[in-house]
Amino acid sequence: MKQYHILIIFFILYIFTSCTRKENDDLWPLTAIAFASQQTVTETTTSTETDTVTNTNTSSESMTDTATDTATSTVLSISFSSSSLSVTVGAATTNTPTANDSITSCSISPSLPTGLSISSTSCAISGTPNVPQSSTSYSITPSNPSGSGSTVSVSITSICPTGGFSANGYCWFAGSAGESCNTACTNQSLHCEPVQVNDYTGRNGSTSNCQTVLDGLSLGTGAVANSGTPTDAIGCAYTTVPFAARIIANTNSTSCFGTSTNYQRACPCMAIAGP
After folding, report:
1. Residue 47 in this model has a pLDDT that exceeds 60
2. With contact defined as beta carbons under 8 Å apart, do 201 and 170 qualify?
3. How many other C-beta atoms can be found within 10 angstroms of the C-beta atom of residue 215?
4. What is the pLDDT of residues 221-253, one digit of tens each?
5. How far, in Å, CA of 80 to CA of 124, rounded?
6. pLDDT at residue number 260
7. DSSP state of 74
8. pLDDT at 18 over 80
9. In a 3-state reduction of DSSP, which class is residue 148?
């Protein structure tokens, strides 16, 4: 009987214990959390290293390299007073152009006629024209250390002095009666050209050449006769004795010094002495 009592006591204790545990089970999670929170090492390493490297390298290198190279290179140029120059055989002449810069050399094409030359430092055309020339165009180009300049065109006409007639590249003049061609040309400050006396209006020339020259000099009228006399009347001439006639002398004389009374010779002249 006593054993039953003990069993009953144990049974009651068991029931009591079970109920108590059941009530505490609802509180267990909170207790565990509270316990765990106490064990949590709050290791909040707030490493707020705001490495704000604001590289404000406002390098205002406004390389306003306004290298406005205002070295406006001006092209060398020249200008003559006229694009058409007229010069006279036997008369000294100088035609200097204006230039916008210095000149160290000057080229010209084609070559100037005998007696004229061009300056390498000014492009001036100067000299004494030797023979007549019809209008001819020349291209002139100045230069300096900066380079070649602009090319300019100039036409040059070489005319005979007053009273002269241009034919076959020479200035022809009429001598007075009985006057030699040497004297006729000297009177014009020129020189007689004996080759022309023979080859154009002399024994090796033609009556048509003689007529052209006599017409140009207004020496007589009419046709030209081929004559062998007088022997000193070289070249082409007009005579009134014994009658008015135009003749081309067919003689062997080649001199510019022949004279004959009453004969007016057509004389070829140039600025420098002929051969």
Report:
1. no
2. no
3. 15
4. 999 988 866 555 678 999 887 788 898 887 766
5. 9
6. 81
7. P
8. no
9. strand
What would the two tokens of residue 215 be?
Answer: 């017409």
Classify residue 145 by burial, with Cβ atoms within 10 Å: 0-12, 13-18, 19+. Answer: exposed
pTM score of the predicted model: 0.69
| CA-closest candidate to residue 231, choices 204, 202, 210 | 202
CA distance 206 to 211: 9
Determine contact, residues 149/141, Cβ cutoff 8 Å. yes
What DSSP designation does 145 have? T
Q: Is 90 exceeded by the pLDDT of residue 137? A: yes
Question: Edge-to-edge, what's the strand order for the sheet holding 93-95?
Answer: 93-95, 125-127, 116-118
- Which token pair is 171? 């200035």
Output the average pLDDT for the chain. 79
Cα distances from 225 to residues 121, 162, 206, in angstroms, run 54, 28, 10
**Nearest residue to 97 (alpha-carbon basis) of 153, 56, 22, 18:** 153
Assess whether the previous peptide bond of 230 is cis (omega < 30° from 0): yes
Distance CA 83, CA 249 (A): 44
Q: What is the number of residues in the chain?
A: 275
**CA angle in degrees (0–180, nearest 5) for 172-178-182:** 45
pLDDT tens column, 66-123: 444 445 678 999 999 999 999 999 999 999 999 999 999 999 999 999 999 999 999 9
CB atoms within 10 A of CB 231: 13
Q: pLDDT band at residue 29, thresholds of 50, 70 and 90?
A: very low
Question: Residue 125: which of 134, 116, 133 has the closest Cα?
Answer: 116
Contact 259, 180 (CB under 8 A): yes
Residue 157 DSSP class? E
